[in-house]
Amino acid sequence: MANPLRREVRQLYKNLLYLGREYPQGADYFRERLNSAFMKNKDVTDPKEIRKLVDCGEAVIKELGTLYYLREYRAMKKRFYEEELLGLLNVGRPTD
Amino acid sequence: MSRVLVGVKRVIDYAVKIRVKPDHSGVVTDGVKHSMNPFCEIAVEEAVKLKEKKFIKEVVAVSCGPTQVTETIRTALAMGCDRGIHVEVSGKDYEAMGPLQISKIFAALAKKEEASLVILGKQAIDDDCNQTGQMTAALLDWPQGTFASEVTIDGEKVKVVREIDGGLETIKISMPAVLTADLRLNTPRYATLPNIMKAKKKKIATMKPADLGVDMVSRVEVLRVDEPPTRLAGVKVETVDDLVAKLKANGTI
Lengths: 96, 253
Fold this sequence. Notes:
The complex is a heterodimer.
Chain A: H1 3-20, H2 27-40, H3 47-80, H4 82-89
Chain B: E1 3-7, E2 10-12, E3 34-36, H1 38-52, E4 58-65, H2 69-79, E5 83-88, H3 91-95, H4 99-112, E6 117-121, H5 132-140, E7 144-154, E8 157-164, E9 167-174, E10 177-181, H6 193-199, E11 204-207, H7 240-250
Parallel strand pairs in B: 1-4, 1-6, 4-5, 5-11, 6-10, 7-10
Antiparallel strand pairs in B: 2-3, 7-8, 8-9
């Protein structure tokens, strides 16, 4: 593996591993998938290819962040804004 | 332009299933995953955004509690706060700590740090008090913009769009002021590992409530904690007539 990219790949792995701790299906599930994904590409030597794969990894990081945010937002909305949701469904409203 | 104080609370993670202690004195916290209160995340995000837009110079993250709350302060630092203040409270004082004590601490810190804004989450998901922001404003005699879903700084004033029953209310208040963040104020950024690493260099000062002249005596005593009643299973019926008969039998119609 090309040397300058080695550091980036390693950092990408660490970042993904860190984010994976909160994965809904469990940190172990995530780590298995992460390891197999990295192992699958372990023989890639072309720097351009590696760059593309790293960018792919960065996109996954963004997606995970969004996933976690949406989960939290939806949970909060459900818990604290029930009247709003009921209003949208026209449930529990007095009919005049 | 100046300094913003942001309060962050360490609470049991929103996704964890809460269990009541067998003696009904509280909920089980030992070994349970904790994280930053979701509304506090939104408060931090707003403060950091104001700094990025250059309306303010410095964001200070504050949390009250035992040593573990420094993790929460570190998360706030990773999200972009400049420095942290850990107000050490532990043992019985921590268990009895509520909005009154917190707001006294924040009022004292706001004066000490000469803050222009104090931004808090609208409520904590563990106690659902929704009081700390309001009490802090009252103690400081500052205007308050609570349930903020939009904040705009206009010179020495703040325009706040508030989420209220039945819609939105827009108010303009002078600074210094207290704001509390509602769910739709912004989208909090996730603290990634590189940001956490960078945040390790940022300073967290430690102090005690006594240093701020605050007494932690609580006027509230928790008598008992119970689980909510289990929801009864629904009953399915075959026809509309069955439904009407059941509702009649139930006394509903």
